[in-house]
């Protein structure tokens, strides 16, 4: 039976290897990449399987680029990008523009009085300034056509209209019928040519509520935020993407527009289109509309280098919730020569019910309901964390999770993984790549991201080649140099009773 399983595994491995090589050759026949004169990179992949296309607009700016005192700004602008333009979302832009300028002037006066401890800044005076600002907002609101930007797109067949911001990037994506390609190019380029900060403070309140719900009122959200700020003392990864509450209550629409002009520049953008389109027709349309965006010199995006960690750091929260154990180890960024080794370790310890952590903690020891390890926390563009977590079952404590996880890490350091394990890591890498190529939206995302990160979409395939070169010795070497106590940050939720009495103590 074991011999038969080995033959099946080998056959799957060979088929995946051949398919990946074939797909790369096929991709090169159907893909067109062009850098426009303004610096924006456009990718078109022809896939005439259905009369639709998906796009992914990758902006190489995330919360790491948030200005000091304006955490959450990258995420805030993502929200504003759906508010329309000087032509979309307004009944009279000339009048609205004047009204919005008044909003900013009145907000600046109110914020200055609120924050600067001005002599004679009585509560009454502050209330008067706040009311004047809110009255200006109400006046500007008279010109707004709510949700007109998404309504136009959705009425023309757009599906999956969405965006996201993380530490490393911001992205916009949806799908449309092929015969709406030019409408898409116009709409998508217009919001980055002529953005309008309408309803800014209303949307800022939405983000504030999002922070309250996902972080302030969520034990795991609070744990993650405090865990990451403990792990990063210098690098900008220590700042939350959602933003600190004091910053959310302070930054202005004017500052959001400054952020946009600094980072939403053509050389920071890659637009990928995948579907039933011909490059000979789509690329001129992309050039016509996106080529209008003015070329601007790239900003200085140097970040503070996180110094080596030389002692374990711990965060312990006492919450009326289930216990959680989390730990992370610093590792290099995605350009590291060992990036494929880290990916291989993540697959080994976490991929499915046969993974090492699931078998050890969930199946065999029966001390956890779930356990896994993963790389890329909180991002991967800069040096980041390889993290492990476990959810204890009743009767078990976070320190039990730590002991079990550390036992598995010691195995990685001191024992070679098996031949079968190494083969399955490589087979799954190829299979995962093939699955990712099937979906237009997913493929557009990967093409744009890899083009942005490596300046060559082919790295999507070369990552599999690099995993193919990983050896057992590589896994032992990287585990030994990374998973050490002095490089470890620990985050724990210990269950507290509703009356505040602690049920368990941290080691």
Strands, helices and their partners?
Elements: H1 2-30, E1 31-35, E2 41-46, E3 52-59, H2 73-80, H3 93-115, H4 123-141, H5 148-155, E4 159-165, E5 170-177, H6 181-193, H7 200-216, H8 219-231, H9 245-248, H10 253-263, E6 269-275, H11 279-290, E7 313-319, E8 324-331, H12 339-350, H13 356-364, E9 368-377, E10 384-392, H14 398-414, H15 419-437, H16 440-454, H17 459-468, H18 472-482, E11 488-495
Helix pairs in contact: 1-15, 2-10, 3-4, 6-11, 12-17, 12-18, 13-14, 14-18, 15-17
Descriptive report:
This protein is α+β, with helices and mostly antiparallel strands and 507 residues long. It folds into 3 domains: 190 residues, Cytochrome Bc1 Complex, Chain A, domain 1 (2-Layer Sandwich); 53 residues; 183 residues, Metalloenzyme, LuxS/M16 peptidase-like (Cytochrome Bc1 Complex, Chain A, domain 1). Helices cover 49% and strands 16% of the residues. It contains 18 helices and 11 strands. The strands form 2 sheets. A 6-stranded mixed sheet has the order 1-2-6-3-5-4, with helices on both faces. It has a 5-stranded mixed sheet with strand order 7-11-8-10-9, with helices on both faces. A hairpin with a 5-residue loop joins strand 1 and strand 2. The longest helix has 29 residues. It is globular, with a radius of gyration of 26 Å. The N terminus and C terminus are likely disordered.
């Amino acid at each position: 039976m074991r011999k038969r399983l080995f033959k099946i595994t080998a056959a799957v491995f060979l088929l995946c290897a051949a398919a990946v090589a074939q797909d790369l050759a096929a991709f090169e026949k159907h893909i067109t990449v062009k850098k426009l004169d303004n610096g924006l990179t456009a990718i078109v992949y022809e896939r005439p399987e259905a009369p639709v296309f998906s796009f992914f607009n990758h902006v190489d700016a995330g919360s790491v680029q948030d200005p000091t005192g304006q955490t959450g700004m990258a995420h805030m602008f993502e929200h504003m990008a759906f508010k329309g333009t000087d032509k979309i979302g307004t009944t009279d832009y000339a009048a609205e523009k004047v009204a919005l300028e008044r909003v900013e002037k009145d907000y600046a006066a109110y914020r200055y009085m609120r924050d600067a401890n001005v002599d004679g800044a009585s509560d009454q005076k502050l209330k008067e300034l706040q009311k004047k600002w809110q009255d200006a907002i109400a006046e500007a609101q008279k010109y707004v056509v709510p949700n007109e930007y998404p309504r136009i797109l959705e009425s023309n067949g757009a599906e999956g209209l969405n965006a996201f911001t993380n530490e490393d990037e911001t992205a916009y994506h949806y799908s449309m019928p092929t015969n709406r390609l030019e409408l898409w190019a116009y709409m998508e380029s217009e919001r980055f040519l002529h953005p309008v900060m309408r309803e800014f403070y209303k949307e800022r309140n939405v983000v504030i509520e999002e922070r309250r719900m996902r972080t302030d009122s969520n034990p795991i959200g609070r744990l993650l935020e405090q865990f990451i700020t403990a792990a990063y003392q210098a690098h900008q990864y220590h700042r939350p993407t959602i933003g600190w509450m004091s910053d959310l209550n302070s930054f202005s629409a004017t500052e959001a527009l400054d952020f946009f002009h600094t980072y939403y520049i053509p050389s920071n953008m890659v637009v990928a289109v995948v579907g039933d389109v011909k490059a000979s027709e789509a690329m001129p349309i992309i050039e016509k509309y996106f080529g209008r965006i003015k070329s601007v010199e790239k900003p200085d995006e140097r970040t503070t280098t996180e110094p080596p960690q030389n002692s374990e750091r711990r965060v312990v929260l006492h919450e009326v919730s289930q216990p959680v154990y989390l730990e992370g180890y610093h590792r290099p960024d995605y350009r590291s020569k060992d990036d494929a080794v880290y990916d291989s370790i993540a697959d080994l310890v976490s991929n499915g019910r046969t993974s090492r952590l699931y078998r050890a903690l969930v199946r065999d020891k029966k001390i956890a309901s779930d356990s896994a390890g993963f790389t890329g926390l909180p991002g991967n563009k800069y040096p980041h964390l390889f993290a492990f977590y476990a959810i204890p079952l009743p009767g078990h404590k976070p320190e039990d999770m730590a002991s079990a996880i550390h036992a598995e890490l010691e195995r990685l350091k001191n024992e070679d993984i098996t031949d079968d394990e190494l083969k399955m890591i490589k087979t799954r890498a190829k299979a995962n790549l093939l699955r990712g190529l099937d979906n237009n939206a997913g493929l557009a995302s990967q093409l744009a991201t890899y083009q942005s990160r490596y300046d060559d979409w082919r790295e999507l395939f070369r990552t599999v080649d690099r995993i193919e070169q990983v050896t057992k010795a590589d896994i032992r070497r990287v585990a030994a140099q990374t998973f050490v106590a002095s490089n470890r940050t620990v985050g724990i939720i210990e269950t507290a009773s509703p009356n505040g009495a602690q049920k368990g103590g941290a080691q």
